[in-house]
Write a structure and sequence with these properties.
Belongs to the aldehyde dehydrogenase family. The chain is of the alpha/beta class and 497 residues long. The chain has two domains: 258 residues, Aldehyde Dehydrogenase, Chain A, domain 1 (3-Layer(aba) Sandwich); 184 residues, Aldehyde Dehydrogenase, Chain A, domain 2. Helix content is 37%, strand content 22%. The strands form six sheets. It has a seven-stranded mixed sheet with strand order 14-15-16-13-12-18-19, sandwiched between helices. Strands 9-8-7-10-11-21 form a six-stranded mixed sheet, with helices on both faces. Helix 15 links the parallel strand 18 and strand 19. Helix 2 packs across helix 7, helix 3 packs antiparallel against helix 7 and helix 10 packs across helix 11. The protein is globular. The mean pLDDT is 96.
Length: 497
């Protein structure tokens, strides 16, 4: 019998009583790894009830103890690093190195969560008026929830529940139904780290389970990462139900290449940033904007992309793995055909790539288009595959205008030797995360992940100081004590005789 992924409710891993299960397959082989349940209404209610009960005691747990749980957790994640990465590779198709990177970026957030005492400090002002003091406390919200995508099954859950729980909340995680084994292992290690019963719940499913979280009247905050249509739905529905929502959606990230840039560095970086992780990341570079004479480099960019090849997770020569599903491959291939039909010049076509020994894998080879214009589907749509579009402009001003006209604002980068050009770019560009001679500018956890425009719906972003603000509320106290209260009362002096 095929293994069934358990739910994690009230501190126990339990088999769902659902009648609906979805097979989870290895994208490189189509082997069925397990079946994931769609949690029942009663199971979801039980998860919420446990989280609510646990919150009453967890919020009173000294903050230093909450920090120690995170310290133990990050140690366990490091100890089991390769084991988790192998699980992750099997269900996502990522290469082993890519899977380890996925987990490591999550571990960095857990390490940041271990610093929660300093991030939860309030503020105090003495004598705001005569004999009146004002001070503020940072307090947790209650039960929070996270809905995570398939492409980073370790990193993105670890963006969410460690910060929320360290801040004193309890948390319900609904991971992607396409790769549930990694989040399950993360939950097992969280228990081993000493997390109390009920602090974390894991339920599985699809839209019905998401809607439970969005509509439940007592779930205080929702964090989401995924596609644009779903991100908009999450934000609109969650806020309509009076919840705090941070919703990270799609992207179309541009790399601007100036003619004075270090040529070989540009070519190396553009290849890795465009096809790495099979292009299945919201910070992938999908458009290279070649400015002026840099347009002459497109054939060398083609040569670099030709050297990248997909392969199995344990192939040390593979640049990336398969895309997540046959449906994802079909969508990518359809968009490639649209690019051809709309008049773009296809310099590399990865639709017919073959990987020896894996005839059933969801393989898409590196694909490169030149002569791309903003009206084309391959420019406008997030392809989420190993496809790079080349756009040519004459000046930096044109490049900035092009990017600012995009509805997305997740990430962008610029390669140049000019400090003046770099400053102009970073100052004028309407994108939340900017790299200068860095292709994928994902910030470390003591900053926040700050997408703009159609890439993010909400106010406070993931991890960093903004995550603490998202998962907490500020209480301000103004206090006055009358002098006569001190004239008679206990004597706290110490007799030293």
């Amino acid at each position: 019998m095929t293994k069934r992924v358990p739910l994690f409710i009230d501190g126990e891993f339990v088999q769902s009583q659902s009648e609906k299960f979805l097979p989870v397959t290895n994208p490189a082989t189509q082997e069925v790894l397990c079946e994931v349940p769609f949690a029942t209404q009663s199971e979801m209610e039980a998860a919420y009830a446990s989280a609510k009960a646990a919150f009453l005691t967890w919020k009173e747990t000294p903050i230093s103890e909450r920090a120690r749980v995170m310290m133990r957790y990050q140690a366990l994640l490091k100890e089991h690093h390769d084991e988790i990465a192998e699980i992750l590779s099997s269900e996502t198709g990522k290469t082993f190195e890519d899977a380890k990177g996925d987990l490591w970026r999550g571990i960095e957030v857990v390490e940041h969560a271990a610093n929660i005492p300093s991030m939860m400090m309030g503020e105090t002002v003495e004598n705001v008026a005569r004999e009146i003091d004002t001070y503020s406390y940072t307090q947790p919200l209650g039960v929070c929830a996270g809905i995570t995508p398939f492409n980073f099954p370790a990193m993105i859950p670890l963006w969410m529940y460690p910060m929320a729980i360290a801040a004193g909340n309890t948390f319900i995680l609904k991971p992607s139904e396409q790769d549930p084994l990694t989040p399950t292992r993360l939950a097992e290690l969280f228990v081993e780290a000493g997390a109390p019963k009920g602090v974390l719940q894991v339920i599985h499913g699809g839209k019905e389970q998401v809607d439970f979280l969005l509509h439940h009247p007592d779930i205080k905050a929702i964090s989401f990462v995924g596609s644009v249509p779903v991100g908009q739905y999450i934000y609109k529905t969650g806020t309509a139900n009076m919840k705090r929502v941070q919703s990270f959606a799609g992207a179309k990230n541009h790399m601007v290449v100036m003619p004075d840039a270090a040529k070989q560095q540009v070519i190396n970086n553009i290849a890795g940033a465009s096809v790495g992780a099979a292009g299945q990341r919201c910070m992938a570079i999908s458009v290279a904007v070649l400015v002026g004479e840099a347009r002459e480099w497109k054939h060398e960019i083609k040569e670099a992309l030709q050297k990248a090849r997909p392969g199995a997770w344990n192939d040390p020569g593979a640049s990336y793995g398969p895309v997540i599903s046959p449906q994802a491959k079909e969508r990518i291939c359809n968009l490639i055909q649209q690019g051809v039909d709309e008049g773009a010049e296809i310099l590399l076509d990865g639709r017919d790539v073959v990987v020896d020994g894996y005839p059933d894998g969801n393989w898409v080879g590196p694909t490169l288009f030149a002569g791309v214009t903003p009206e084309m589907s391959i420019y406008k749509d997030e392809i989420f595959g190993p496809v790079l579009c080349l756009v040519e402009v004459d000046t930096l001003d044109e490049a900035i205008e092009l990017i600012n006209n995009s509805p997305y604002g997740n990430g962008t980068s610029m390669f140049t030797a000019s400090g003046a050009a770099a400053r102009k770019f970073q100052h004028n560009i309407e994108v939340g995360q900017v790299g200068i001679n860095i292709p994928i500018p994902v910030p470390l956890p003591f900053f926040s992940f700050t997408g703009w425009k159609g890439s993010f719906y909400g106010d406070q972003h993931a991890y960093g100081k903004q995550a603490v603000r998202f998962y907490t509320e500020t209480k301000t106290i103004t206090a006055r004590w009358f002098n006569e209260d001190t004239k008679s009362g206990p004597n706290f002096s110490i007799n030293l005789k």
